[in-house]
Specification:
The structure is a single chain. By secondary structure, the protein is an alpha/beta fold. It contains 14 helices and 21 strands. It has helices at about 25-35, 75-85, 120-130, 135-140, 145, 160-165, 170-185, 195-205, 220-235, 280-285, 285-290, 335, 365-375, 435-455, and strands spanning about 10-15, 15-20, 40, 55, 60-65, 70, 90-95, 100-105, 105-110, 215, 240, 245-250, 255-260, 265, 270-275, 300-310, 320, 330, 345-355, 390-400, 420. Strands 9-8-17-18-19-16-20 form a seven-stranded mixed beta sheet. The protein has a five-stranded parallel beta sheet with strand order 11-3-2-15-21. Strands 1-14-13-12 form a four-stranded mixed beta sheet, with no helix packed on it. Strand 17 (about 320) and strand 18 form a beta hairpin. The longest helix has 22 residues, at about 435-455. Mean pLDDT is about 90; it is low at about 1-5.
């Protein structure tokens, strides 16, 4: 094997390095920069963003996200970050927590939480939800003991096992719990981690009423979050360097001594945050990765299908769920971006979570399946053909939120005194979400700031 050679001309000292310019890495770097530090972010890709990036797609003639992201009112860290970046106003916010659904039996129906204290607002919403019976609403009360206790004891159970144990009826599961599980955990209920699902339910429905409000980005993610974060880091004294892949880490005396990259080596950093995917980190520190079981984490896919019609169709809501169909959720891009429904081409995005099966389908098959789902809800489109279509398969969208995965998610602190981890896959207590990524990045930065403060 050829020995790796690093050009000593580029060797330089480093203060604080952040490895990876995804949401976690950028959040960490911005927190450090705001505290007066000068972090350097090293990113392997040509541009920052990771899985939250967007780009101009010539087929649809618009900027598309790598995958649609739904935010919630419970995303406190993410919303604080958007406030810091001055882009919070670019979210489409419902005035009340409302989820819209459609099926052939009930048509359009909504789960709306009234302005009541938690959890009574959820119980009232279930009582008024036309797709559920009174017995369904009463069955939901059986979940209360677990929702009020620590979810860790459910770590080895699947969501299906947990719901079955509490005698949740098939109708309630199919109409509410299963779609919510797929959306928040990116995993089917039969293989989803019950402890994580309970954590989600607690954050959404046992906190304040606004926690369950869905928030939709009205502009592409790169413009909402990534580019503003990069600009803010640079304005505060930090920097972001792309096309700079980390090739090797050198450790000695309980410290990370050097970071070797395509663009040279950084020596004796005071602190380093690795905000890398688990597979990338495992290549750099394989023995420790195996010992901590992080190599046991697997990936779960998401497929998104963007359709544009030469017809002014519109959906009943900006976001609408279709239980028991291929397309679990549809977004109306015109409504989200505030465009008038009349005289505007219909622009829709279907989200297929936990797409273990659908990721193997051809683009043509996916487009046809999504078009059929859309036509059932909007019959006027049945005789239309999509003018433009784009299929995006994100094979590593999230970690697979299976039972007993918590033991495979390392904490931020490592055995090395100047080396921390960040990422939505680390031990955040949350599923793989923007909120988990931001929380982990800010948390790692706070640990470094505390350490440096004590060094004075």
């Amino acid at each position: 094997m050829k020995e790796t050679v690093f050009d000593p001309v580029f060797d330089q000292k480093a203060d604080i390095l952040v490895l990876g310019a995804g949401v976690a890495g950028l959040s960490a770097a911005l927190r450090l920069a705001d505290a007066g530090r000068q972090p350097l972010v090293l990113e392997a890709a040509p541009a920052p963003g990771g899985r939250a990036r967007s780009w101009f797609d010539p087929t649809c003639a618009e900027e598309l996200d790598n995958g649609p992201h739904l935010l919630m009112g419970a995303y406190t860290h993410t919303l604080q970050l958007l406030n810091r970046l001055g882009t919070r106003h670019q979210l489409l916010e419902e005035s009340t927590p409302t989820f819209t659904f459609w099926d052939a039996t009930h048509g359009v129906h909504r789960l709306t939480c009234p302005d009541w204290p938690a959890p009574w607002h959820l119980l009232a919403a279930l009582a008024r939800f036309p797709a559920l019976s009174l017995s369904d609403g009463l069955a939901a009360l059986r979940l209360a003991p677990d929702l009020l206790s620590h979810p860790s004891r459910l770590e080895k159970q699947s969501v299906t096992q947990w719901l079955t144990r509490h005698r949740q009826g098939e109708n309630l599961c199919q109409r509410l719990w299963y779609p919510l599980c797929l959306t928040t955990l990116n995993e089917p209920p039969g293989s989803a981690n019950a402890a994580l699902f309970v954590t989600v339910l607690k954050r959404l429905f046992l906190a304040d009423r606004g926690a369950a409000r869905p928030l939709l980005p009205a502009i592409p993610l790169s413009r909402l979050l990534i580019t503003p974060a990069q600009t803010a880091i640079q304005q505060a004294g930090g920097s972001v360097r792309c096309r700079c892949r980390v090739r090797e880490l050198t450790f000695a005396d309980r410290r990370l001594q050097a970071v070797h990259t395509d663009q040279g080596s950084w020596l004796q950093p005071r602190a380093v945050i690795a905000a890398l995917p688990p597979a990338a980190l495992a290549r750099l520190i394989p023995e420790w990765a195996t010992r901590t079981r992080m190599t046991a984490l697997r990936n779960a896919p998401i497929v998104s299908v963007h359709l544009t019609y030469d017809y002014p169709a519109t959906l009943p809501a900006a976001l609408i769920g279709l239980p028991q169909t291929t397309s679990q959720w549809f977004l109306d891009r015109n409504i989200i971006q505030g465009l008038p429904p009349c005289h505007t081409n219909g622009r829709f995005t279907a989200v297929l979570s936990a797409a273990y099966r659908e990721r193997t389908w051809s683009p043509a098959r996916l487009i046809q399946a999504v078009h059929q789902d859309l036509s059932r809800m909007v019959p006027a489109l049945a005789h239309q053909t999509p003018q433009a279509a784009r299929v995006i398969k994100e094979h590593q969208a999230t970690f697979a939120a299976w039972p007993d995965t918590t033991a495979c998610r390392p904490v931020s602190q490592t055995p090395w005194d100047n080396f921390w981890l960040a990422g939505d896959w680390t031990a955040t207590g949350l599923p793989a979400t923007l909120e988990g990524a931001v929380q982990s990045g800010v948390g790692a930065a706070e640990k470094i700031l505390d350490l440096l403060a004590h060094e004075r």
